[in-house]
Amino acid sequence: MKNNKSLKVLSTAAIAAALVAPTVAVQPAFAASTYSVTGTQNVSADSTIPGTTRVTVEVSPGSLGTEPKTLYMRLPADARATVNGVGKGVTKPPFEKSASATQGVEQKHKITFGGTATGVGKVEIKVNGKDIKVDVNDGDVAKDIASKVATEINSASTGFTADSSSDDGVILLTAKKADNQIDNLVEKVSIADGVTFSDAVEKKGVPASDGKEGSEFVPAKVSGDENQIQSVEVISDSADDQYFTIKVKADPKASANRGIFFLDLTDVKVPSGAPSGPFNVTFDSQDNAFSPGDVKIAQVGHGSVKTSIDGTVALAPGKNDKVTLKTIRIQEDAAKAFDGEYKLELPDGFKWYGDDIKGKAYWGDDQVDLVFDSRGKDTDTLTFKVVAKGKTFNDEKKLTTKATQFTIDGLKVKADDSDAAKGEVKVKIKGDVSRTNDSIVIGTYGNYEGDVKAGDAKTVYAGQTGEELATFTIKEDTPDTLREGRTLKLKLTGNAKWATKRVGNKVELKEQPQIKSADSEKNGLELDTWELSGSDRTVIQTTVKKHSTNKPAKIVLEKLKVDVAPTAGKGDISVALEGTSGVTADAVILGKTAAPVEISVDGELAKIDAGLQQQSIPNITIKEVAADLIDEKDLVVKFPEGVKPTLPGKVEVTGGNLKIDSAKISVEDNKIIIPISKHSSDKGATIKLSDIKVTSYRYVPEGDLKVKITGPAVVQNIKDGESNDYPFNKPNDTHVVEGSVAKVVTPADKNKYAENIVFKIGSKTYTQDGKEMTMDVAPEVHPVYNRTYIPAAHFAASLNIPADKVVWNEASKTVTIFAGDKVVSATAGKKELVVNGTPVQIDAPVNYGQHTGYRVMVPYTHLALALGATVEWKADTQEIFVNKR
Length: 885
What we know:
This protein has 885 residues and is mainly β. It has five helices and 77 strands. It is elongated.
């Protein structure tokens, strides 16, 4: 054959649209002709297809030309048929579009809704192949539902108008034009709980040509234009009516228009050897006017049934015998397939229950019933069979005359809570009826509990803000476990807090956790927005807006963003599920913390002496562990108290595309400050500091000299008060990593503290090694606590601690004394000192105010002990003797 263009098969709806659509005089892109089929059925081998199967043939504008064209049609081997009444020795003259035709009648169809919706759900049907879906609310009655459905039908291109004005749940469908009957015009997909549904043909359409001239098989008009086809002659080429020649003649006056004709196949014999699957007719042509290919006119089955269910339900202890299962459907693939007994067997721990179990033929053979053996109730197995209409289970079985779909409604189950297993409830299909599947899932069973699961833990970096944790899955055992109005709380443990921002006077989540739709099965579950719970930013909560229905919900939460503590180091970040929702779970690990940078030195650690200046230390390397962890702000290399570095001879980037503003590198006290002008986007950056010298004061202790990497370039969640208000409360001294760069080998000066210090109660002078010193506030005995108080700053001065090492914080009313390896803080009103970060309880509060001359007064024995000095009290002279450590 010369024509190798592909075959295009159109739907019935597409052909109907073609008959009313305006003509477009353009050659189709995919085929010279197209074929559509109405009346396809499920049949068995060695049978005759009931009724009429119509094949509509459409040709493109201008494709027929002026000469007659020939189309060949053949049926499968050993099959036969009558086409347009031709066959079995019968011949007919050509069918002409000029012949008279009968006025058509519009098809009418009635849809009836009943009952009242119980819960939120959907009504889903198909009308002439178009999906019609409406939402149904709890308490919606039949007329409400009918009105919603009618509105959707009228807005869709179904070819029918819908009228629900009768106000009784009935919708009347009327074809917009005269047309043939459309088989299975209305199809039920799913119906909300509590709602009933039925439909019926009110008036069948008849072949029509809108009152114009034309034969039964060649209409006069196509889309209002003259049909390109003038006549069609059908000839049977064989005695067994397997091959047909169709001669098609064009009307020269209408050659620019589309053309349509019909081939009606009746008495189609399906041979005994027909394989399962599509039963096709094949078209061939020596003319380019027609496309070759196979067209399905039936589906051959070999006597099997397929079982399905319209949905699943929730089965829970104490309520499962009140839940009606969804409709079970048993579909024959051919007539006579339901041959014998058909059994539904429940798993261990469950039994069938129900007083209104109904089986019926839903469509197909209307002279049979599906009945069950009532002795199966209160056991785990129900048995069904097909009998003649009106008969009982004890009567003989009856085979169907055409493929039939059966339905079973009203089934319920009971569960023995001690034996029934949680999870899917799977019904086994047994019996001697041949079947394509051996089980269906009818629902889920379980207590009002659930579980959580963590995705693969993500690495998150210390000091970073908005770091994303792994996904967090919450799964119900039973629908409605997460009840409406109940709360879900996610509690963080580990060195992190939920990422926040300030909006006006309120601190809010920087980003909302999201439900990952692709991996979730919400089944109606809806959550409200998430918000902080409590003041420490470790707990967020939400409320359940709508509970799940029919199936347990599974929600996968993503976009869980946290701020990681600068000093987090290596550790775990976990999340626990709490609240009143009915599902709680211990913490699962969602994140692994790591420092954003590493620090190292070239070669061995340098050995330096306390109290010497300009001592060289090795080159320092700061390596970013991944791209874009060092921000475009100041990176700070911080040395210990008492160690002051020089400006490095060179600071260079040896890896990554990070850039430094070299002209602005500076030294402030014990810090080297490196401004970052561009972050590294391709890989982790490497920064090298060369030719560094340090001055070490006398009181620097022996041992490793460690530097800390800090500054807003790596600590993004501390000094950004506008966005998160110091979530870790350490704005003055924090770092993401520290490392040794040298060793102090000469001990600090042991004579750092003076000796023979004498204070006297009520006196503003004291002696230090016999030298008289003056204070502005005298030591005193507290009248309530009977403890001797001494001014903290003057006590530090008596020990030769420099004044710049005594720091006052007016906001917190705290004095901090830096004394070599000891850092001691005292806060007004508190009964504690903080020594090297550890709170130490004392028996009287720190005193401060107008009555103390605005000096911090501390019980002298506790302050001396904290600073490493020894004291002695002389009661007779009211004197305090202080000696070195």
